[in-house]
Amino acid sequence: NNEESSLVLSASSSSGENPHFDFISLINANQSLVRKMGTMGKAFYNVGFWIRETGQALDRLGCRLQGKNHFREQLSRHRMLMNVFDKAPYVDKEAFVAPSASITGDVHVGRGSSIWYGCVLRGDANSISVGAGTNIQDNSLVHVAKSNLSGKVLPTVIGDNVTVGHSAVLHGCTVEDEAHIGASATVLDGAHVEKHAMVASGALVRQNTRIPSGEVWGGNPARFLRKVTEEERAFFSSLAADYSNLAQVHAAENTKKLDETDFKKLLNKKNASDAEYDSVLNDLTLPEDVPKAA
């Protein structure tokens, strides 16, 4: 109703920002309202959801019945944040979630963390917790198991200032603060990566394996390789900070309106001094009073 809508908008604009830009705060506020509803409120909410889904299904059916004469607009149904039954994700307002990422179910993302493009965090069978300042890089998967061979069904817990490399898989495991998971590494159920430890790129950490603090493990299956050097430990900290800063840049770019990006391209085109920039932006139709760069 109108009262609930105004509450959602006021919650998302309390910091003085445009509510249309603060998408994550808007979703969190809406989910908070749903949790506070009584039994009847939740029932009406679910009925409304089913009616909307039914309407979309009828629209698709009607398009198919029209055969070749129909026009169907292809809309993406991707959702950055999605509930699973009564499990709703929570993302801190200072965190960055890329538009193509997917966070589903019982997932908590802490302050200053970044979930990059193509990542999937699926907390449908158990919970996923991501600490502060952690970066989960492109195309990585974080999941939990409803059951496994060991009989230990555990959540996935990722600490503070952790770096998870591109295309890594974390499944029902624990990664402590300031650890480093290399690109394409896999950490399976019950595994425990201690603070300042490193899993090398492409490694497979088997179930219930514990990697002690300050050690580098690699291979398939992963085994001890050597100790982490002081230079590597400093690099892990700086890498987490660099990704936190980079996430702010991407967050700002992703919240821009179309006219803002076009105007920025126009200014860059005016000040461009080489042909390479033109090839990146493609040819733009400029007003007559804005000369092209030589």
UniProtKB/TrEMBL annotation:
InterPro entries: Hexapep, LbH_gamma_CA-like, Transf_Hexapept/Carb_Anhydrase, Trimer_LpxA-like_sf. GO terms for cellular component: mitochondrial membrane. Keywords: Mitochondrion. It comes from the Eukaryota. It is a peripheral membrane protein. It is found in: Mitochondrion membrane. It holds the Pfam family Hexapep. Belongs to the gamma-class carbonic anhydrase family. This is Gamma carbonic anhydrase 3, mitochondrial.
